[in-house]
Amino acid sequence: MAPLGLTPAYWVVLGHAAAAVLLGHAFFRRYRVPRPPVGVFDLGDVALLLGAVVLAPLLYLVLPRWAAAGLLGLGVLGALLAVLEPVLGAARAPWGARLAWPAALAVLAADVAAALRPGAPAAALAVNNAVLVLAVVGVANLWAQSGLKARDAALLAGALALYDVVATAWLPLTDALLGRLAGLPFAPLVAWPGDPGGGLGVGLGDLLLATVCPLALRKAFGRRAGLTAAALAVATIAALLALLDLGLVRGTIPAMVALGPLTVAQYLLWRYRGRERTTWEYLQAEPLAPALASGPR
């Protein structure tokens, strides 16, 4: 038995969740992702994103499993490129950024191979967990560096909290979706097995919001706001996982029910204490290292 009566599954899942939040913050301060040619992330994008969150589970439930895995893989590919292009490009080697595509495809192939390998569920989960952590870092930084405001992040978190109550607590949608996608490559769940038939996991969407909201708060209100939000996000996930691991709560916990109001409360507190900075003001107050700020060439 692990310390404090918590199982190894608790520490593995919590470690991956903490890694996503911390790596997302470290990446945010060191690298600039390639900007998409769609302008600044605004309230209209938040509305579209909410619509996608509502419709995507329904789509995955009706698609053949191979098609669902393919769509998930395309999303993961884009997220991996957002991470790998600036990291490899920062090496300043003329071929550095060109390795992003083959590297991303190799990561995808490893996830597929692990998922299809018979008799090795732990290995498949280990590979998929690592891939999802990288994907979360990429998407979170793409949103935050594309101009996501703390206000919009708080609205998104609050709306997703309400949606999570409906989809998880009132309807069997979340459980049905996870059951449908379980065992597929790129399954959107950071998970680890526990006792026979058991285990723990954190949904990809929950982990993404736990990573991106601290970035938006740091950009808007400074280092203290961002690091406090990151610490609170990890602590909240740790507490929710502990409730499940210790058997104090049965079933699926809609994590955004805790993360959403927490994000909204933090935004309101910091907004009360001062106005939200623009991205330009953030970079003036907290400039990146010149060699990293320009990203890949």
Explain what this protein looks like in three dimensions.
The chain is mainly α. The chain has one domain (35-288). It contains twelve helices and two strands, in the order H-H-H-H-H-H-H-E-E-H-H-H-H-H. It has helices at residues 8-30, 43-62, 65-89, 100-116, 121-145, 150-170, 173-181, 204-221, 223-245, 256-273, 279-285, 290-293; strands spanning 189-193, 199-203. The protein has a two-stranded antiparallel ribbon with strand order 1-2. Helix 3 (65-89) packs antiparallel against helix 4, helix 4 (100-116) packs antiparallel against helix 5 (121-145) and helix 5 runs parallel beside helix 8 (204-221).
Defining traits:
71% helix; mainly alpha; 297 residues; disordered C terminus; two-stranded antiparallel ribbon
Number of discrete helical segments = 12
Rg of Cα set: 19 Å
Number of domains: 1
Total beta strands = 2
Low-pLDDT stretches = 293-297
Helix-strand blueprint:
Elements: H1 8-30, H2 43-62, H3 65-89, H4 100-116, H5 121-145, H6 150-170, H7 173-181, E1 189-193, E2 199-203, H8 204-221, H9 223-245, H10 256-273, H11 279-285, H12 290-293
Antiparallel strand pairs: 1-2
